[in-house]
Each structure stands twice: as structure tokens, then as C-alpha cells.
Amino acid sequence: MKVYINGKFYEREEAKVSVFDHGLLYGDGVFEGIRSYSRLVFKLKEHIDRLFESAKSIMLELPLPKAELTKAVIATLKENKLIDAYIRLVVTRGEGDLGLDPRKCRGRATVIIITDKIMLYPEKYYKEGLSIITVPTVRNLPEALNPQIKSLNYLNNILAKIEATNAGCDEAIMLDSLGYVAECTGDNIFVVRDGHLYTPPQCMGTLRGITRDTVMELARRDKTPVHEHVITRHEVYISDECFLTGTAAEIIPVVKVDGRVIGDGKPGKITLGLIRKFKELTKKDGVKY
Ligand code: PXG
Prior knowledge:
Elements: E1 2-5, E2 8-11, H1 22-26, E3 29-37, E4 40-41, H2 44-57, H3 66-79, E5 85-92, E6 110-117, H4 123-128, E7 130-134, H5 155-166, E8 171-175, E9 181-184, E10 188-193, E11 196-199, H6 210-221, E12 226-228, H7 233-237, E13 241-246, E14 250-257, E15 260-261, H8 269-284, E16 287-288
Parallel strand pairs: 7-8, 7-14, 11-12
Antiparallel strand pairs: 1-2, 1-6, 3-4, 3-5, 4-16, 5-6, 8-9, 10-11, 10-13, 13-14, 14-15
């Protein structure tokens, strides 16, 4: 497996960055998780755009333009002869000294592209659905570290994940600072009620997920009404269906939340329909390599 670092390919064992890299020292950097299906990179433009937006927000200048970065992703996939892949794009502030000041990194951001075989959750999760809980750790406040920034500092989500696994659950619902449902640790959340789809708006503690956007588009195409609206835990409990969306998980049904059975305790009809349509889309939509 070859890893791209700043324009060169390195064997996995040789793919290293400095211990003075501010990505390691401070989580100062941004990232994206992308997937390719049958040599088609799904929503590559959207991921590259979001990476640049995250970088702009933290005043991190990428050493290469979008077109070059796109080419580098494709080159890494080809170098590794991957057909179905998971792609991790990481940009750190670069090597500096022990001080916080990003100026010490002299604008030399580190660009890393790791590609691997596709990560799949166990099939049983998709068939039977997940059991999840709400955890005490609330999502980062947008006015502190905006969840729209996919930064390398993921401790907020990691703490929530730890709380979920401590309780024997696979995923966690994170609330925003007002107590509304924000999202899960690495996925967005949707509920279905009376044939309508609801997901929290992106303005509070919610990342504007690319899978989330795709699912909303697929549902609207199908004439299913979609609402970006605040959701309370109560509304999750009494929903007919619930599911999570993310690049890694794709669309995954949820059948139990905080001990409450959702709907009839099985993945719902609308959820299963969206899973099927999402699969069809990934087979034909994407950047070819
Ligand atoms: N919310 C958060 C907090 C995320 O990190 C999503 C939603 C879904 O967004 P996309 O654009 O992927 O539909 C994410 C994405 C992991 C992992 O290992 C998760 C993400 C990225 C990389 C790895 O679970 N998150």
C-alpha cells in the first residue's frame, strides 16, 4: 500500500510525518473521508470543496489547487490499483515548533492521501439496525469550533463514541447546546414520521454531510417531503423510522434509541428504499479512474 505525502508516494511503513507537525501536536488541520465504488469516486468534487472550505475557515492554505488535489487522489487510487476504496485526505498545518502559533509552520501544509480497501460495517447492522443512545457530551458549539469544519480535532466526537461503547452501544446521538438532536459521532441522523423525512438543520451542531445531502436529493426525487428542522429526543423516540448517513456507514438503520424501540423494531420501508437507491447511485455516479 502506497501513501501520498506532499507529492510523493511512500510505502506504508515509510509514510511518516514529523513529531513537530501541528496536526499531531494540536489537531491543527482538516480532513475528508471519501469512497470510490467500481472505479468511480463518489462526490469527489463535493469532498474537495468541503476540504477547502474547512481549510479556509481555519486559515490553512493548501499548497496545491483543487484540480491538482483531485488529480493526486486519482493518482493514489491508481497507484494502489484499488477498485472499491476508502480514501482519507488529510491536510495538516505542517511542521512547526512546540508553540501554538501556526506562523511557525511557515505555510508548509502537509498533504496526505491514504487509500485502503473499503471499510464495511458488519452486514448484520444493515439488516437488523443499530441500537444507539444519547450521550452526555454535547456537540461542539458552532461559535467555539464549528462542526462544519472537519478538523483533525475530533475529540468531541471521540468522547461521545467512548460514552456509547461504555454503554454497550454502537453509536451515540450528540445533542447541541440547546438540547436538540445534532448528529452522531461520524454520521448525520434522519427520522421518518408519516412519510416525511426530517433531519436537523446544519446551522447548530451538525455537519453538512455529503451523504445527508445525497439522501435528501434521492428522497425529494421520489416525492418524499424532506424537512431540515430541529428535532427533539422525543421526536426521535416516536418516529416511524430512524437512520444514520455518512461516507463510512452509507445509510444505516436505527431500531432502538435510549431503550425505546423505533417503529416496529425493524429497518423501515423508506429507509430500505433509500439504501437501495443510494447503492444504485454509487454504481453510476462519480469521477472515473
Ligand atoms: N457528521 C460527522 C461529525 C462526521 O464526521 C458525517 C456527519 C457524515 O458526513 P459525510 O459527508 O461523510 O456524509 C461525518 C463524516 C469514521 C469517519 O471513521 C467518519 C467521518 C469521516 C471519517 C471517518 O466514522 N465522518
